[in-house]
């Protein structure tokens, strides 16, 4: 049907390629000639000006001169039609409408040609690779967690998660913090109510795991912890830790030491040295802090390349505290219903932000929570 209606009609130019009209507009003009020579002549002049416009502003002016709503020459001629005798009125009317269509098509074609030329002048280079969409990545702390979980998985540990909102009993009591003992003061605590708090460390996870399961156990406890700290460059009131717990028969400090050495070499490099320094934590006995040789100065306490200036990261000591550890206190076993004559175990716990800060030289702990991509995309 469509074919039939359009048979014999050949516009010579399709809207899909308006630029081609610029070459053959005169052909359409010649079809106007027999209809009304005067209109054809005027259209030829306006057409030349439109086709010859050098920039979009000139084109707009040329278009307005011919077809402008009030002052356009053809528009005005159309307005004159009623004053003409009937016969001329008919042919002139047709001619003017043809001319109008031709000139506005021509204007559109010219505008497109000008735009294309401008793009070419601006150096449009279709071979330039496209803009790559920015792809997100795992948060730097997530990356460190992944690395640690991978490492401990290789040593036979699985993950146990426990609540961030915790009972006082689990955060302190069953971990052998005596009531009103000053050890609680080291954990500035956010209390939700009298007996409910935001956990101050990931160690309460051991208590929950031990109450739920029977030994042997080999578990790690990753997660977020809260302390009512004064916020500064190295303290935040929320941060992350990971604890580890191993419970079996005949577990000794030697087992703890070899596990921690494996951990330290994997995380800080094969040449790192470690030492255990005795320290008090209520839930382990003996308790220790593990230090690693400073990753910045290599353990000398001095920066050789900077005139032997004192290393600011280890404060000249050559050592960095990286974790707390020890053998599980018999009272903790009692609190969860394990017989301390039968079961032994070790535990360790460390802060994740500190690992990232040491590894990447990050000077400011608040950066981890700001979600500024300029920071995050560096890792
Ligand atoms: N929970 C302790 C803290 O946050 C760190 C710690 C010390 C964890 C000794 C342990 C450990 O597992 O054995 O300060």
Automatic annotation (TrEMBL):
InterPro entries: aa-tRNA-synth_II, aa-tRNA-synth_II/BPL/LPL, Phe-tRNA-synth_IIc_asu, Phe-tRNA_ligase_II_N, Phe_tRNA_ligase_alpha1_bac, Phenylalanyl-tRNA_Synthase, tRNA-bd_arm. Mg(2+) binds at residue 285. Its EC number is 6.1.1.20. Transmembrane segments: none annotated. Residues 144-378 form the Aminoacyl-transfer RNA synthetases class-II family profile domain. It holds the Pfam family tRNA-synt_2d. It is found in: Cytoplasm. GO terms for cellular component: cytoplasm. Its cofactor is Mg(2+). Its main location: cytoplasm. It is an enzyme of class 6 (ligase). Keywords: Aminoacyl-tRNA synthetase, ATP-binding, Cytoplasm, Ligase, Magnesium, Metal-binding, Nucleotide-binding, Protein biosynthesis. CDD domains: PheRS_alpha_core. Belongs to the class-II aminoacyl-tRNA synthetase family. Phe-tRNA synthetase alpha subunit type 1 subfamily. NCBIfam families: pheS. This is Phenylalanine--tRNA ligase alpha subunit. The lineage of its organism: Bacteria, Candidatus Eiseniibacteriota.
């Amino acid at each position: 049907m469509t074919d039939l209606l359009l048979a014999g009609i050949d516009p010579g130019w399709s809207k899909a390629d308006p630029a081609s009209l610029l070459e053959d507009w005169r052909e359409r003009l010649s079809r106007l000639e027999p209809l009304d020579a005067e209109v054809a002549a005027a259209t030829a002049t306006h057409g030349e000006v439109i086709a010859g416009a050098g920039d979009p502003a000139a084109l707009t002016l040329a278009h307005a001169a011919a077809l402008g709503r009030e002052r356009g020459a053809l528009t005005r001629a159309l307005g004159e039609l009623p004053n003409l005798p009937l016969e001329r009125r008919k042919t002139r009317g047709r001619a003017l409408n043809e001319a109008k269509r031709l000139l506005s098509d021509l204007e559109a074609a010219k505008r497109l040609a000008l735009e294309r030329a401008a793009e070419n002048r601006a150096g449009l280079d279709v071979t330039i690779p496209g803009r790559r969409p920015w792809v997100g990545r795992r948060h730097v702390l997530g990356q460190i967690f992944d690395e640690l979980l991978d490492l401990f998985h290789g040593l036979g540990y699985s993950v146990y998660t426990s609540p961030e909102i915790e009972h006082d009993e689990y955060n302190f009591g069953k971990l052998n913090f005596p009531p009103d003992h000053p050890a609680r003061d080291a954990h500035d605590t956010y209390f939700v109510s009298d007996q409910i708090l935001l956990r101050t460390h990931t160690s309460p996870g051991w208590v929950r795991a031990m109450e739920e399961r029977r030994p042997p156990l080999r578990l790690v406890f990753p997660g977020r912890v809260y302390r009512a700290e004064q916020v500064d460059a190295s303290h935040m009131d929320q941060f992350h830790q990971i604890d580890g717990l191993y419970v079996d028969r005949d577990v000794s400090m030697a087992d703890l030491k070899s596990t921690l050495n494996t951990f330290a070499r994997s995380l800080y490099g094969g040449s790192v040295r470690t030492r255990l320094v005795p320290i008090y934590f209520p839930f382990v006995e003996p308790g220790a802090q593990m230090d690693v040789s400073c990753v910045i100065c290599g353990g000398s306490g001095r920066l050789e390349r900077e005139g032997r200036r004192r290393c600011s990261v280890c404060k000249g000591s050559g050592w960095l505290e990286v974790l707390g550890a020890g053998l599980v206190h018999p009272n903790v076993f009692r609190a969860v219903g394990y017989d301390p004559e039968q079961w032994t175990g070790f535990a360790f716990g460390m802060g994740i932000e500190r690992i990232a800060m040491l590894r990447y030289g990050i000077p400011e702990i608040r950066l981890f929570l700001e979600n500024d991509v300029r920071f995050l995309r560096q890792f």
